[in-house]
Amino acid sequence: MATIINCQEVGLQFDGGPNPILNNINLQIQAGEFVSIIGKSGSGKTSLLQMIGGLLTPSKGEIIVNGQNIMSPIDEMTYVFQKPVLLEWRNVLENVLLPIELKRRPNQVDRKKAEELLQPVGLAGHESKYPHELSGGMISRVTLARALLTAPKILLMDEPFSALDAMTKEQLQLELMELSVQFSTTVIFITHDLSEAVYLADRVVLLGKNPANIIREFSVPFQRPRLKDWKFEPSFTKIVKEIYDEIEGLSEDKE
Ligand SMILES: Nc1ncnc2c1ncn2[C@@H]1O[C@H](COP(=O)(O)OP(=O)(O)OP(=O)(O)O)[C@@H](O)[C@H]1O
Q: Whose C-alpha lies nearest to ligand 1, atom 16?
């Protein structure tokens, strides 16, 4: 597999900030890989994702995505924010079509593709509904369909399911896993939920505050897509426990 995202010696310090938020980040992600990023609040997960997405400029080092030095957002990447942003005056289908419409007038092929995407994300039959008629889970499904419409090579997701109830979250995890495998999408996924991190990913990256860099990486050597019952298997809980112990082991003075 080829490296599609390459962070080399990346550092970030905000203007006027006393210490770097991130330091010496070296992270190589392979095309089609699913990587979860975890770490305590304030460890810089969102900042790292924003730098990879070209929304924030590193103070040090460089980030190369798909062969380009990242200076601003590029077409091959789609960013899914923690808070879903839907336009209230547009129905589900129109919200899904938004990324196309920002570039050009959607044609019949685009509409057909958008309608087809509503099926696997569980929104078939809801295309004419407006955001105020949707549940939180349905809104997340719209943002997932919208993110996948342009078939991005890379999906950057910042805690996309954190506000959902457990059952909806589980359903969306399954859908994301199926779709990312089907489209061979490279995904970087931030979460606070260890079980979610392990279940979805090929690799889990743990960020620490002090030092402000990658503390450890955990491989999840099981083929995707995975059955939802895998979460009850010892092979799954063993990895979750290993990560949990590592986080617990980070002494208070290190945080
Ligand atoms: N624009 C900014 N200017 C100055 N400091 C910032 C800015 N954005 C974030 N920070 C600081 O950078 C640190 C890392 O923030 P970031 O949001 O990347 O962490 P995080 O790991 O994603 O946190 P959380 O899990 O709470 O979402 C925090 O201490 C935050 O206060």
A: 44
Residue range 109-165, pLDDT digits in tens: 999 999 988 988 889 999 999 999 999 889 989 998 898 888 889 999 999 888 888
Residues near ligand 1 (Cβ within 6 A): 14, 17, 21, 39, 41-47
Q: Domain 3-253 belongs to what topology?
A: Rossmann fold (3.40.50)
Q: What is the ipTM of this complex?
A: 0.96
Show me where the domains of the chain are located: 3-253
Q: How far is the CA of 44 from the centre of ligand 1 (A)?
A: 6
The type of residue at 245 is: D
Q: If phi over 0 gives left and psi between -120 and 50 gives alpha, with beta otherwise, what is residue 92?
A: alpha
pTM of the model: 0.91
202, 220 contact by CB (below 8 A): yes
